[in-house]
Amino acid sequence: MNLLNYTLKYLAIALFGIISVWAVIFYVNMLDEVYDSLDDGLDNFKILIIDKAHQDSTTLTKTEFAEGNYEIRPISKNNALKIKDVHKDTLMYMQFEEDLEPVRLLTTAFKIDDKYYELKVISSMVEEDDLIEDLFYSLIWLYVALLASILIVNNFLLKKVWQPFYNLLNKLQTFRLGKDHSIEPVKTNVKEFKVLNDSVISLVNHTLETYNSQKQFIENASHELQTPIAISINRLELLAEKSEMTEANLETIGQVIQTLERLTRLNKSLLLLSKIENRQFEETENISLNKIFFNLKEEFSDFAEYKGITISIYEKAQLSAIMQKDLAIILISNLMKNAIVHNHSNGALDIEIDQRYFIISNTGTESALDKDKIFKRFHKDSGDKNNTGLGLAIVKAIVDLYGLSIDYSFDGRHHVKVTL
Amino acid sequence: MKILIIEDEADLSDVIQQSLEIENFLVETASDYNTALDKIISFSYDCILLDIMLPGGNGLDLLEELKNLDKSDNVIIISAKDSLDDKLKGLNLGADDYLTKPFHIAELTARVKSVLRRKSFQGKNLIEIGNLKLDPDERSLLINDQALLLNRKEFDILTYMIVNKNRLVNKTSLAEHVWGDHMDQADDYEFIYSQIKNLRKKLKDNHADVEIQAVYGIGYKLVQA
């Protein structure tokens, strides 16, 4: 639900309440006014009839309403003195409507020549049920008209008013750290939007600054850490070349070199991981994953052969992805390498490629791995010293970067499914 | 053959120098921008190893200077920055090659020799050792003028071992050179042994003058018989 229609939801509820309350008050007030004016009319009528009775005594013989709207009855003095002017609602049979209809009735008493008479004057009334019905329908139409006009105003006028906001939102959505240099301010005269503009721009600039210094830090870390390790390895190699070395010494040097190489790999993996998580791989292209699988199968062929593992690729469809090419290769090669390393001799590595996913299945340990832990950093199931424990963490970071999903399952074989 | 190392890290510069001197090259070093600028203007070198991050200036500016002097074709950039931008800039300025730190000394030696070969043989790339004639561009090998067919990996291994002859080649360096970067973490690279074994057999059967020896725990060494 967008902002404009969101406000409409609340306005609809509020208007409903306001109109309902207003309807009741309006109805009561209107009815009050109607009674007031009817009663005034009846009082006026009363005076006219009494005046007429003084001049024309035949008037006093009109004891039935019939075609007129009053009746006069002689009454005793006692009764007459008790009567005060009373307006009240009553029902009377109407020939036109063929039903009892509400009328307003004024009962009063007067005296002519020491005789007392009771006078009843009627006036036809509004039909309340009809009035309520009319009012109800009018209000419904009013309500609908109000909502419709708000909707129209929202969508045409407010949309225009909020345009700078939506422009800014658009820019933020398409903004990519490391790719865009900053955000262009939107043109607006509204104070709040200007403040929003300034806040967004200062936030973006601050983020960019942080991002750049972090990037710088990673590059520096790479420079500071990898080179000393490499130099140590190089110096050991130069030492091993010296002719006076005994075989035992060479073996020790070899072990130190291997340890240092593990350190190099670990450092390299950590750098890669932080680079991925810092979104430093921005350039993407449309890549055929099938091609990468076949290339890597070729690259891994010697290694797989050495381990006695058969790699098979089942191509059900062409699968392509919009990714950074190196990351696509790292994603797949890490999974394949894992499937070869954690396998047994004469094992199998099967790859299934379909339109939306690929599955890498391999033989290996007889029990399932812990689904929640295998993608965590430094999680190691085997005591293999060559395993940095970062291979699958890198896979997960790449998967997250591109919004893919990855699943592990076990049914005697280990399956890793990556869905695009 | 005179080589200039422009590198501010004294340790790295020293290791490269020692290794290149074993190969009988004349090596000079410069550890900052101005020293390097003085040297490249005053002298002429067969190969220049250039670091991009230098105290006092940017290595790419030095490269620009070399390009103006028409001396940039024998430059190998060595940089800790694995940055495509720098690489493209460097190669556009005429650098011959780009090597990301950290690298194996054997890899550097191979690249340096490749630059030198192209320079001295007017672009003809031919390596002769004993009764072997190896053409890395044509990917052909002659032993006693008889062609010997090697598969891609055997050929790459032999080329790499020959340019590093009499030197100890770390098996990691060999694996990365021949099999690419995706082979790290792969079980101590024992799988490369089977390719070496095949290559050894082919060399021996064809009476080659060279032999690949194993150096226990570290790697291999190619020696001329």
Describe the secondary-structure layout.
The complex is a heterodimer of chains A (420) and B (225).
Chain A (H helix, E strand, L loop, with lengths): L2 H53 L14 E6 L1 H6 L3 E9 L4 E14 L2 E10 L3 H34 L1 H12 L16 H51 L5 H31 L7 E4 H19 L2 E6 L4 E4 L1 H17 L6 E6 L3 E6 L28 H11 L3 E6 L3 E6 L1
Helix pairs in contact in A: 1-3, 5-6, 6-9, 7-8, 8-9
Chain B lengths: L1 E5 L3 H13 L3 E5 L2 H10 L4 E5 L1 E2 L2 E2 H10 L6 E5 L4 H9 L4 E4 L4 H16 L6 E3 L2 E4 L4 E4 L2 E2 L4 H12 L4 E3 H9 L12 H14 L4 E6 L3 E6 L1
Parallel strand pairs in B: 1-2, 1-3, 3-6, 6-7
Antiparallel strand pairs in B: 4-5, 8-9, 9-10, 10-11, 12-14, 13-14
Helix pairs in contact in B: 2-3, 6-7, 6-8
Q: Considering DSSP H and I runs of 4 or more, what fraction of the residues of chain A is helical?
A: 55-70%
Query: What's the arrangement of strands in the largest beta sheet of chain B?
Result: 2-1-3-6-7
CATH architecture label of the largest domain in chain B = 3-Layer(aba) Sandwich
Which strand order does the major sheet of chain A show? Answer: 6-8-9-11-10
Note poorly predicted spans of chain B.
Answer: none
- Quick one: biggest sheet of chain B? 5 strands, parallel
Average pLDDT figure of chain B: 85
For the record, the count of structural domains of chain A works out to: 3
Strand residues, percent of chain B: 15-25%
- Total strands of chain A: 11
Q: Compute the separation of the termini of chain A in Å.
A: 28 Å
What is the first-to-last residue Cα distance of chain B? 26 Å
Q: Which residues of chain A form runs of ≥5 with pLDDT under 50?
A: none
Quaternary assembly: heterodimer
Q: Structural class, from secondary structure content of chain A? A: alpha+beta
CATH class category label of the largest domain in chain B: Alpha Beta
Sheet-strand content of chain A, in percent, reads 15-25%
Q: Within the CATH hierarchy, at the fold level, what is the topology of the largest domain in chain B?
A: Rossmann fold
CATH superfamily of the largest domain in chain B: Response regulator
